[in-house]
């Protein structure tokens, strides 16, 4: 590198109180990148400390430390940007619900819809077309961000252009390159308008009132872009709420017109207005619940208060009625109950069931349907937050398993943010779903369900979970009085119930001080997998076990051979009895097994009466249990006796 180039990137003297990023010491590298994170520097700025260190011929280990700190800082920057983006999307959605709740004019409703749609997805253009029943096509009603007059005056026939296809099929469609997409019919007027506007990527979702398409909501970019599934589902839920708001605004407009022209039916109109106001009131309440982060049970309570009866959220409603409600978009009657499907983007999330109101007028029915829409929004928001936390928990456990980050303080801080304590004693569990061979799609779905259930269990137990090796791995704290085997069996039952199929779980021996010894997690996972494989070989699929459950086989399965624990668990009561009473039960057991389990030959070897042998063996049975002479127990006892002899040094005389 030339002297001039070195001078061109030479860093200025560090300010007072700021560590030099090239300085020696354990915090030099981290300090430099923490300052970049604190001021929100661009990604390119993260290369500067490494370039400076190389220009100044810093030691290789210092440059390597800076490289590691750079990669970690960039990961943190990416995570922070992702969280800010998700917060902005949810904020835009909640603001939309609040604005719609206060609107009563149709034009104002439509303008708010396109403005919020553009803000929600961060696109260049957003626009809304409405169905024209007289002409049988859709026309452009409102645009936001559009600059081309011809585009703003487009009409789309059924099946023409992407919007016409959405209106015809009542399904969302997305294209990342409009002019290269041949799924829909291209026409000269539509293509000319799109070309004038410069649009490339377009997403369109239907505005539905029941089975009827009343319009299409679009979000578009002037560059190639791939819309993610979550964005499509979120815009679809927004469109459903927007359609309900349009319907409410239209209904209120019709009501005002009727009041002006039907003075003779004044009492009827008053009653009808009261019903409409009640619908508007529940709409406002539901919007407020969304804004203040309410839960599903809050929605059910609000609707119960307005409609009477009892409203509950469930995922076990009558399947046929639930499917009918999801398909038609209306609440349906089932016996004395009403069922409204809770769905988002074609995915069925559950149902709101109204008990005790067999007779329901159309407005109250629409209120129940609107509550189902709001419930879907809350569930999507909660799922998004839960998935973000699950990913963070999985990343920390992956780091522990791979031992990439060995800095104890940083590991403890990351765990504390997830309400986990790495200083507590934990058990590492390997879990795998059971069942017959399936196709690849069903097998992948089973693994996803297992990982989701494991993540929920870890979050409630203040542990960690991650997907690995076709199954899941969990790190759960060991509660007082519990054993590793207890945790394994309990986890197998819980996961099996959650995923509705058998799940086999192998557990490690307890591990402690994980922040200082992250290698223990990887070793524990290996031990848990050996126990899991042993359960499969023994035909115990769907069960949970630790090495301690396998007797002397546990010595082979355990990551560290805990001989003392095996001896204590097998013949500990006999050893303690001899030590306390000065008896010779151990010596008698040795002789008994050496003589082929014959009391007569044993008494000759010990030079005692046969009754003495019988009395000692009776004492052994009381200490070890009546089954101590069964083949499996006898084998373990003989092994424990030999290990005890090998581990006991003779006293010096």
Shape: elongated
Strand percentage, roughly? 5-15%
Q: How many individual helices?
A: 23
What is the rounded Rg?
35 Å
Helix content: 55-70%
Report on this model:
The chain is 57% helix and 14% strand. Helix 4 runs parallel beside helix 9, helix 10 runs antiparallel to helix 11 (296-307) and helix 10 (266-291) packs parallel to helix 13. The chain is built from 23 helices and 15 strands. Strands 3-2-1-6-5-4 form a six-stranded antiparallel β-sheet. A five-stranded mixed β-sheet has the order 12-13-11-14-15. Strands 7-10-9-8 form a four-stranded antiparallel β-sheet. The longest helix has 42 residues, at 60-101. With 653 residues, the chain is an alpha+beta fold.
Question: What labels would you give this structure?
Answer:
653 residues; alpha+beta; six-stranded antiparallel sheet; five-stranded mixed sheet; 57% helix; disordered C terminus
SSE diagram, text form:
Layout (H helix, E strand, L loop, with lengths): L2 H7 L18 H11 L9 H8 L4 H42 L4 H16 L3 E8 L4 E8 L4 H4 L2 E3 L3 H9 L3 E3 L12 H10 L3 E9 L2 E10 L7 H33 L4 H26 L4 H12 L2 E5 L4 H10 L3 E3 L2 E8 L2 E9 L6 H41 L5 H10 L8 E8 L6 H21 L3 E5 L2 E7 L6 H16 L3 E5 L11 H19 L6 E3 L6 H5 L5 H19 L3 H10 L4 H8 L3 H15 L6 H17 L6
Parallel strand pairs: 14-15
Antiparallel strand pairs: 1-2, 1-6, 2-3, 4-5, 5-6, 7-10, 8-9, 9-10, 11-13, 11-14, 12-13
Helix pairs in contact: 2-4, 3-4, 4-5, 4-9, 4-10, 5-9, 9-10, 9-13, 10-11, 10-13, 11-13, 15-16, 19-23, 20-21, 21-22
């Amino acid at each position: 590198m030339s002297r001039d180039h070195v001078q061109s990137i030479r860093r200025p003297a560090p300010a007072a109180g700021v560590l030099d990023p090239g300085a020696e010491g354990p915090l030099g590298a981290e300090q430099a990148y923490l300052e970049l994170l604190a001021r929100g520097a661009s990604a390119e700025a993260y290369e500067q400390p490494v370039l400076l260190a190389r220009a100044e011929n810093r030691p290789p280990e210092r440059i390597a430390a800076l490289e590691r700190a750079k990669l970690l800082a960039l990961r943190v920057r990416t995570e922070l940007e992702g969280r800010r983006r998700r917060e902005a999307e949810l904020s835009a959605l909640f603001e939309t619900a609040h604005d719609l709740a206060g609107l009563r004019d149709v034009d104002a409703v439509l303008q708010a819809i396109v403005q919020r749609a553009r803000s929600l997805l961060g696109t260049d253009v957003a626009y809304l077309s409405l169905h024209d029943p007289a002409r049988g096509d859709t026309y452009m009603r409102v645009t936001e961000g559009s600059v081309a007059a011809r585009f703003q005056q487009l009409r789309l026939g059924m099946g023409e252009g992407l919007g016409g296809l959405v209106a015809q099929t009542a399904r969302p469609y997305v294209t990342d390159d409009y002019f290269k997409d041949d799924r829909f019919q291209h026409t000269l007027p539509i293509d000319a308008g799109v070309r004038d506007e410069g649009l490339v990527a377009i997403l369109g979702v239907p505005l539905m009132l029941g089975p009827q398409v009343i319009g299409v909501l679009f979000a578009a970019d002037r560059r190639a872009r791939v819309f993610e599934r979550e964005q499509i589902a979120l815009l679809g839920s927004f469109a459903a709420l927007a359609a309900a708001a349009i319907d409410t605004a239209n209904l209120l407009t019709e009501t005002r017109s009727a009041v002006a022209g039907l003075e003779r039916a004044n009492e009827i109109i008053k009653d009808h207005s009261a019903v409409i106001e009640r619908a508007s009131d529940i709409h406002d309440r539901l919007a407020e619940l969304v804004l203040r982060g309410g839960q599903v049970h809050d929605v059910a309570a609000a609707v119960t208060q307005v409609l009477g009866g009892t409203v509950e959220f469930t995922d076990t409603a009558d399947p046929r009625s639930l499917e009918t409600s999801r398909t038609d978009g209306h609440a349906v009657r089932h016996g004395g109950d009403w069922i409204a499907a809770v769905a988002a983007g074609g995915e069925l999330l559950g149902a709101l069931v109204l008990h005790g109101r067999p007779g329901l007028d159309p407005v109250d029915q629409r209120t129940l349907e609107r509550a189902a829409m709001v419930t879907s929004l809350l569930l999507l928001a909660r799922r998004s937050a839960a998935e973000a936390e699950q990913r963070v928990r999985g990343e920390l456990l992956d780091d522990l398993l791979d031992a990439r980050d060995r800095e104890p303080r940083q590991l403890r801080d990351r765990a504390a943010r997830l309400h986990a304590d790495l200083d507590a004693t934990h058990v590492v569990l390997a879990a795998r779903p059971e069942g017959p061979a399936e196709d690849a799609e069903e097998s992948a779905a089973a693994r996803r369900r297992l990982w989701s259930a494991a993540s929920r269990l870890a979050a409630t137990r203040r542990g960690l979970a991650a997907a690995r090796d076709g199954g899941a791995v969990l790190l759960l704290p060991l509660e007082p009085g519990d054993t590793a085997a207890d945790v394994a069996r309990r986890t197998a039952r819980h996961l099996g119930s959650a995923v509705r199929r058998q799940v086999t779980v192998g557990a490690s021996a307890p591990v402690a001080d994980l922040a200082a010894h992250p290698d223990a997690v990887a070793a524990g996972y290996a031990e848990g997998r050996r126990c899991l494989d042993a359960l499969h070989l023994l035909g115990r699929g769907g069960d949970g076990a630790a090495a301690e459950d396998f007797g002397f086989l546990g010595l082979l399965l355990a990551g560290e051979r805990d001989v003392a624990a095996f001896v204590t668990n097998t013949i500990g009561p006999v050893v303690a009895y001899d030590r306390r009473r000065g008896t010779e039960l151990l010596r008698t057991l040795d002789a008994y097994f050496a003589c082929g389990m014959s009391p007569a030959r044993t008494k000759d070897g010990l030079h005692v009466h046969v009754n003495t042998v019988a009395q000692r063996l009776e004492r052994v049975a009381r200490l070890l249990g009546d089954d101590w002479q069964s083949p499996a127990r006898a084998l373990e006892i003989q092994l424990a006796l030999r290990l005890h002899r090998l581990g006991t040094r003779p006293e010096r005389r």
